[in-house]
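Bumping my old thread because nobody answered last time. Still need a sequence for this structure:
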């Protein structure tokens, strides 16, 4: 199983704080995004944002990063500041 966590606006947009996915057929963060995007149009619009940030086991990564059973994958909206 892979634990998925959503933060800030993503949590509100998806009405979901966390979930788990079977690790079968999930090799990368991009695979997770693809599987979650198939849930609904709302999930697709929210997760297919070029500015989406992701982390695996608390390390910021890009979408090509590998994942395995037991990993925690977190998604964050783009961070802005001034």
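Sorry it took so long. Here it is:
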């Amino acid at each position: 199983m892979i634990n998925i966590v959503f933060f800030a606006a993503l949590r509100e947009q998806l009405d979901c704080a966390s979930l788990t996915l079977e690790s079968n057929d999930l090799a990368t963060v991009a695979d997770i995004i693809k599987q979650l995007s198939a849930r609904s149009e709302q999930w697709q619009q929210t997760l297919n944002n070029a500015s989406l940030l992701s982390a695996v086991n608390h390390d910021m990564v890009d979408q090509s990063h590998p994942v395995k059973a037991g990993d925690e994958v977190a998604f964050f909206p783009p961070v802005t500041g001034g």
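The chain is about 30% helix and 25% strand. Let me know if any region looks off to you.
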